[in-house]
Amino acid sequence: MARPPSYSPVLTGEAVAVEATAADGSARVRALVEEHYDLVWRTLRHLGLNDATAEDGAQQVMCVLARRIHVVVPGAERQFLLSTAVRVASTLRRTARRRAESSDHSIDKIVAATPSSEELLDERRAHETLARVLDTLPVDLRLVFVLYEIEELTTREIAQIVEVPHGTAVSRLRRAREAFEAIVWRMRAAGGKRGMER
Amino acid sequence: MNDPRRLRDEDNDITRALLRAGRPWAPRPARQRAIAAATSIVATTGVTATAAGGALAKAGAVAALKWMGIAGVVAATGVGAAVAFRSDGRMLGSRAAVVAPSATTTESQSRSARPAPVGAFEPTGTTNPLSPSEPVLAAASPIDARPATPPANIESPSQPRSSSASVRAPGPRSPFAPAAPPPPASLAKAVAAQVTGPEAIAEEASVLGQVNAAITAGAPARALSLLDGYTVRFPNPSLGAEAQVLRIEALARSGDAITARRVGDAFLAANPQSPYRARVRGVLQTNP
User: In this predicted complex, what is the ipTM?
Assistant: First the structure.
C-alpha cells in the first residue's frame, strides 16, 4: 500500500524492522476485522445508531484497533473492540441523530403493534420489533442485555467491557431482563387476545 | 456464581424469535472498507511498535489481570423471576435468514472515497486532527488506558488522516478523557441520565419483579408493601395494569378475599379490553 511521502521521515533508520512489524500487524488487523466486524456493527446498531452511522462507527472502531494493534493483548481483542465500540457509540450518539429520538418509547404502542408468532418468523419483522423493544431500555441496561442475550458473552466479560464491577453487570442484566420480559409478556398477552378475537 | 440461563433458551417463542433476529450480518462492502482503512493505518503507524510495543504489551497484560481480578459476589437471585407469568408458546421453526441492511450506492461511494471517516461525526471543539504532537489515546481500551503509560510514545508523531479525531472524547464532559479515568459505569450513567423515560420503565419492571417474586415466595404482605411503594413512586405508571393484577393476586394470597374481590371487580369493570381479564377472573375464582 502506498505510503504518503509525509510519513517517510519516521521510517529512517528502522526501515527493515518496521516493514516486518507492519506486515504482521496488518495481517492481524485484517483477520480481526474479518472476524469481529459483524459483532461491532451489530453492537453499534443495538446501541441506537442507524445503518449509516453504525457503519461509520464500526470503521472508526477498526481504525482504533489498527492504531493500537501493538498494545492489544492477544486474546483480549474482542474486549478491546467492544470497549471501543461503546465509546464510539457514545460519541456518535451525541453528534448524530439518534434512532431512539424518532422512535416511540411507549410500551403500549409497541405492544399494540406486536406481530403474531407467524409474522415473527419473518426475520426482518422480528428484527424491527426487537429494535423497538430495545429502544425502551436505557442504554446501560441495553448494552448488557445485548452482549449477554444476543452475543452470548459472560457477565464477567461484560463487566470488563463496560468497566463496571461484576455485581453491577449482573444487576443491570437482571433489570434489563425484567424489563424485556415484561414487554414480551404484554406482547404475548396482546397477541393471545387478538387470537381469541379472530 | 454461574450466569443465568439465556432467555433465547427459554421456552418462549416471542423471546426466541426476537433474540434470534438480533444477529444480522453487516453489509459486506462496509466490512471491506473497514478492512482497507484499518490495514492502511497499520502500514503507516507500524513504526512505533518496535520501540514501544513490547513494554506496553507487558503493562497492558498486568493491567488486564488486575482488572479481571475484580470479582463481584452478587448472586443473580431473582433473574427471570420478574413478571414470570410466561405461558408456553408454540415452537418456532428453523433459524430464519439473516437481515443484512445494505447501504445505498451513494453512501457506499462516499464512504469508500475516504480511508477513515473524518468530520462527519467529529465532535466540535476538538483540536486539529492532523496536529503532529497530539496523543491519540482517547479511545484506549480498559487494558491500555489504565496504566499511566506515556501516550506520546505510542503513536507516530505524524498521524495519518484518520478517524482519531472522530473517536476522541469531545470535551470535559466526556467520561473518556484520558487525563482523568472515569469511575466505573460513568459512561452508562452519563448516557442513562439523558434517558429518563426508559429508565423509569426499567425501574417499574424491577419493582414489579420483586412483587412477583414475593408473591411466588409466599410473602403477599411484602408484595403489597412493595406495591404501595410502587404506587407512590410511579404516579403515572407505564405498567399500571400489571401492578393492579399483581395487587389483586397479592390480596387474594394474603387471605383478604373481600378486598381482592373489590379491587378485582373494579379492574374488570374499568378494563373491558384488558388482556389480563381472564387472569384476574381466575384469581378471583380460585380465591372466592
Answer: 0.75
